[in-house]
Amino acid sequence: MPKKYAVKESFYTLQGEGFHSGRPAVFLRFSGCNLWSGLEKDRTTAICKFCDTDFWGTDGINGGKYELQNLISMVTSLWPEESFSAKKFIVCTGGEPMLQIDLELISALHQANFEIALETNGTLAVPEEIDWICVSPKGGSQIIQRSGHELKLVHPQNGVDPTEFEDWDFNHFYLQPMDGPLLEKNTAICLEYCMKNPRWKLSIQTHKILNIQ
Ligand code: SF4
Prior knowledge:
Strand 8, helix 3 and strand 9 form a beta-alpha-beta unit. By secondary structure, this protein is an alpha/beta fold. The chain has a single domain, classed as Aldolase class I (TIM Barrel, Alpha-Beta Barrel). The chain is globular. It is about 20% helix and about 30% strand. The site of iron/sulfur cluster (SF4) has 12 residues, from loops.
């Protein structure tokens, strides 16, 4: 039986946050995460309790269980044909995409002329063939992937101090305000932290402001 990839949803949009904020991208959201089941009844006992993403199942737009070539065809079809750019850009996210991404998929995406960005919680090792690695550490989890291009910390998190990541091997360090009822206060906390510690930059979830996916 050929491997099938479980996809929650996939669509063409702008990357909303972090280094590539504002860049058009195909989003490929894989189902499932190793830090929460995705079910509300399990949230209080999950390692990661503040998730605001629906990654459960395969019922979103373009969701489903895909064999490799069908998955490549689907994401390719989402990129605008008239694009003057030779390089397509795909953001693999989740859930935790490293539960499913393998070298075959990476190679097939490269053959289809995609530059591959990954948004991971860092608890699983990431192949170096990925073009852009963004790790977003979650308190209470064990981070394996301590290098990459972008470290994006949702802040504040209970018991998580940004200084503990500063000697990790990343090119960019972002603080992103924790969403929810305290967003305004959390934004002020992040803003002040970045101003005092200029190694860190502020990441705003612009897709929520723009009201796009
Ligand atoms: S690690 Fe990411 S996808 Fe998984 S539960 Fe936390 S925020 Fe959600």
